[in-house]
Amino acid sequence: MAQKIHPIGYRLAVTQTWWSIMIADKKDNRYYISQEIFIRKLIPEILKKAKYLTSEIIIKRLPEYYHITFLYYRNRNKDLFSSKTSYLINLIKFIIEYLFNVRVYVQAIEIQNYTMNAKILSEWISQELSKYPKKHKQIFKRVIKEFQNNISSHNKYDNIIK
Asked: Looking at the whole model, is its pTM more than 0.85?
């Protein structure tokens, strides 16, 4: 007899919530899972073109609508206006509503400090390394040194708050 287990927190001290919540009939599960896979590929692609980095995408599929929440980071030095963010959210919402003919609520949460999120941090390092056509040891050392400087500048302010 099989038992339902939590895929992330199995025999761990720390557990997380599910990244996907679906309320649907069993006969429609295959269709909804394919929709969800499409959405999970769509959001990072749209945000990557705008030079945003995404971390987690949480999708709640209810009978009448989708509720999508995602975490993102944008570099403040390059992008000063938040109207671009609202445009991207509306674009994601429009594409999903048009393709799947369902209401969509999108919630975007901005991450202020990218050094606290491992997925965004790894994407940032790979983005920095991909700027150069040849992968040299010196370039890698420069990117890591820049990252260490960013961490030390963030930690400098953290000590003041404590």
From this structure: no
